[in-house]
Amino acid sequence: MKRNLFLVFWIVGILMPMAWLVRPSPVAYRIFNTLFSPAWMHILMHGLLFAVLGALLMQRLSGTPARRVGLTLTLVLAAAILQEGFQLLSRQSVLHPDNLFDIGVDMLSGLLGVLAVLTVRKRATERTA
Question: Which of 121, 79, 123 shows the shortest CA–CA distance to 71?
Fold first, then answer.
């Protein structure tokens, strides 16, 4: 139960535009923009968030490995699209190539999370054999 609750909180954290939380405070908003405006930091944060999401989903979904991978990547894509949609709404903006780039980073990162789980499981199986 606690593991599923962590997954729910992780997804909510991904979907909520963090700028909404800091926008009421000019100081917090300035710090937020200073930290997260560089492109490398933006990419790193998307990568971290979605790699962990991919790993968490792979650990919690059931079925064959192929089914879990497919479902995990589908859910990662859904979360990526929702996150970009919420960001567009919060900024009252239109779809831009940067949004598609972010979705690509999210998908690649989700795949890395999936591969990490599969690698760990394979090594654990080899050790017990």
Answer: 79
Low-confidence ranges of the chain (pLDDT < 70): 1
- pTM value is 0.87
Q: For 56-79, write each residue's pLDDT tens digit.
A: 999 999 999 999 999 999 999 999
SS3 for the chain is: CHHHHHHHHHHHHHHCCHHHHHCCCHHHHHHHHHHHCCHHHHHHHHHHHHHHHHHHHHHHCCCCHHHHHHHHHHHHHHHHHHHHHHHHHHHCCCCCHHHHHHHHHHHHHHHHHHHHHHHHHHHHHHHHC
